[in-house]
Amino acid sequence: MAILIGLIPALFWGILPIWMRKITGGSFLQQLLGTSMGIVITATVLQLIFRFSISGHDFWLYFISGAFWSFGQCGQYWGYGKLGVSLTMPLSTAFQIIGNSLIGGWLFGEWTGWHDNLIGLGALVIIILGVLVANGIVGFSLKNLRGYLVLLATTFGYWGYSGFPHYANSTSGINGFLPQALGMLSTSLLLYLIGRRKLPGNDPAGIKNITSGLIFSVSSSVYLISLQLNGLVNAFVLTQLNVVVATLLGIIILKEADPRRTLTTSAGLGILIAGAVLMVQI
Q1: Of all helices (H) and strands (E), which one includes residue 21?
Q2: 262, 213 in Cβ contact below 8 A?
Q3: How far apart are CA 253 and CA 256, in angstroms?
Q4: What is the per-residue pLDDT across 134-186, written as a single tens digit (0 to 9) for each?
Q5: How many alpha carbons lie under 13 Å from residue 116 in its C-beta half-sphere?
Q6: Of the residues 50, 220, 243, 261, which has the maximum number of CB atoms within 10 A of its CB?
Q7: Alpha helices, H only, the chain
Q8: Structural contact between residues 66 and 184, judged by C-beta atoms closer than 8 angstroms
Q9: In whole angstroms, how far apart are CA 88 and each of 3, 162, 189, 230?
Q10: 10 Å Cβ neighbour count for 81?
């Protein structure tokens, strides 16, 4: 059951980029702010219904986690427009897996003994190989170098997003959903003001992207539960299976690549899944 719960974020996070590119549109900053607003709305409703309690210590940990998310998500949304979903998702996944797996396995001690470390590192290599094959490693282009570097530089946000809740004392991660959402909105608003140099005001694209936030909220709230049930490494790796959904839909629905590439992509994603399955055995 814990594994099934961990797969729910993967499904909704995989659908999200297609929804944004096909339905809501807007710039990456409008998408980021709209998503954050939708998340805050959902988190507020849940808080009013269930009245989650949280200490001041945990509040700020989740708030900071949300702030870090804004940087990571900003880079990924930017990548959707510049590189395309089917290219951004595998690369972003690779960068995130490297950092989060090593942080969880070594810093948080989720890998114990040589056996866990051997399996973890082996699975990590398999996952990265799968991502590279799915992306078509021979298709690496210097013209996209700036995009690759932006994705790499902003990935630290995702590391903080997953890592800070680990220090919380709360036994239920969902308790921190509202403060995390507030951290997301605060930082997203700051990035919006810096990038667009004006207040949001009447922003149709931003308003439409509130629906993106509602979709994201399902993944985000369930991910907090999965962190408690599966641990950082396993919970995170399970979410990264969203690359399977997003990459294939990016090729098929958004027509971002030659359909003949689908076979190679599918093979790479199959390798990625095999690595993820091996990782969750730890």
Answers
A1: none
A2: no
A3: 8
A4: 766 545 566 778 888 999 999 999 999 988 988 888 767 789 999 999 999 99
A5: 14
A6: 243
A7: 2-19, 28-50, 56-82, 85-102, 113-135, 145-154, 156-163, 177-196, 204-208, 210-239, 242-252, 261-279
A8: yes
A9: 26, 20, 23, 26
A10: 17
